[in-house]
Amino acid sequence: MVASVVLPSGSKLVLWGHRDMTGLPQIYLLAFSILCILSKVCAQLCPTPCACPWPPPRCPPGVPLVLDGCGCCQVCARRLGEPCDHLHVCDPNQGLVCQPGDGPGSRRTMCLFGEDDGGCEVNGRRYRDGETFQPHCRLRCRCQDGGLTCLPLCSEDVRLPSADCPRPRRVELPGKCCPEWVCDQAAELQAPGHQFSGVVAPLPPGVPCPEWSTAWGPCSTTCGLGMTTRVSNQNRFCRLETQHRLCLSRPCPPARGHRPWNGAF
After folding, report:
1. Helix (H, G, I), strand (E, B) or coil at 203
2. Which domain of life is it from (predicted)?
3. pLDDT for 154-197, tens place per residue?
4. Domain boundaries in the chain?
5. Which of 3, 12, 90, 203 is deepest in the core (most CB within 10 A)?
């Protein structure tokens, strides 16, 4: 004979007994006793009727008022890393859940990000951890550890005026994602009898090169190592070029507490 009791947490308690009818009263008596014990425990955790303080508590800026775990009174939502229990619940708007701490054998519960929140959300679409995607034709991004790593797909070169192209201009052409350089009135401004080979020689020794550089751009990643670029003429040709270097915005969060990245392009 098998009987089951559904606990308040939603789990099921299975009771085994004899197959004959003589054990049936004992099984139901045991189930009734368990329900009485559980009802007393729940009554201690969630008093009935509700006895809520007035006025409601004043929360710090950015912390919402939520119903406690009993669905009875308003409490300030607990934030990331703060202790939590059956009454003091975590902020659901931040995707926080009450779970055991990171320490081995820790019995303390705190608000942490859910295990399934390791992806990234961009323009209303969610991407899995490790997935590569293109939010725009000019960018390729990768979702990793709750952050984004994006690299530009278009060239960032700078074209200076030359004999064959005295007026370079970067324009967006129909049907193409990346802008391209075009020349205006090259034939009219080119001196007759002079041809430009397109080969640039290094500056002779002793010839000064006035420094010209842009500021380093933003890091290509939201966390961890990334790449930043600038345009500078500090090279042996004294010619503008795009330069790259590594950058570190901030360390990425631990693998367990993924925080979804939410943004738009």
Report:
1. coil
2. Eukaryota
3. 877 777 777 778 788 888 888 888 888 888 764 444 444 444 44
4. 2-45, 65-113
5. 90
